[in-house]
From TrEMBL:
Subcellular compartments: Membrane
Chain intervals for the UniProt region annotation (Disordered): 1-29
Biased amino acid composition, Low complexity: 7-20
Alphabetical list of Gene3D superfamilies matching this protein: Rhodopsin 7-helix transmembrane proteins
Protein known as: Uncharacterized protein
Matches recorded under InterPro entries: Ion_channel_UNC-93 (IPR010291), MFS_trans_sf (IPR036259), UNC-93_regulatory (IPR051951)
C-alpha cells in the first residue's frame, strides 16, 4: 500500500513538473516572438528616419529649416532623455511608451513631405 502511495506521489510530481516546463517554454516562445517584433519595428521605423535625417540639410534649404530642425531634434532629445524618460515610462508603461515614440517618428517622417517651418519644428520637438 505504501508503494502505491509513493508511486502516485511520484506521478503527480512528474506531471506537475511537465506542466511547469510547458509553461516555461510557452513564455520563452512568447518572449522571443515579442523580441523579434520589436526588432523589426525598430528597423522599419529607423530606416526612413535615418534617411530623412541625413537629407535634412540638403533638401530643406529654405531659410535653413533643415539645419534648425536638426538642432531642435538634438536639443529635445537631450532634454527628454534627461528629464522625461522615467516619468513617461511610469505613466504609460513600457509597451505604450514604445508605441507613442514610434508615432513621434512617423510624424517626423510625414512632416518632411510638406517641409514648412510650421510643420517641421513641432514634429521635431515631439520626436
Amino acid at each position: 500500500m505504501s508503494d502505491e502511495t509513493s508511486n502516485d506521489n511520484n506521478n503527480t510530481d512528474k506531471s506537475s513538473s511537465n506542466g511547469s516546463d510547458d509553461n516555461k517554454q510557452a513564455k520563452s516562445r512568447r518572449a522571443k516572438k515579442n523580441f523579434i517584433v520589436i526588432c523589426l519595428t525598430f528597423v522599419l521605423i529607423y530606416t526612413p528616419y535615418n534617411a530623412v535625417t541625413n537629407l535634412q540639410s540638403s533638401i530643406n534649404i529654405d531659410k535653413n529649416i533643415g539645419l534648425y530642425s536638426l538642432a531642435v531634434i538634438s536639443v529635445c532629445s537631450v532634454v527628454s532623455c534627461l528629464f522625461l524618460t522615467h516619468p513617461f515610462i511610469s505613466i504609460f508603461g513600457y509597451k505604450w511608451s514604445i508605441f507613442i515614440s514610434q508615432v513621434g517618428f512617423l510624424l517626423f517622417i510625414v512632416a518632411n513631405i510638406y517641409p514648412k517651418a510650421s510643420f517641421m519644428f513641432p514634429s521635431k520637438s515631439v520626436l
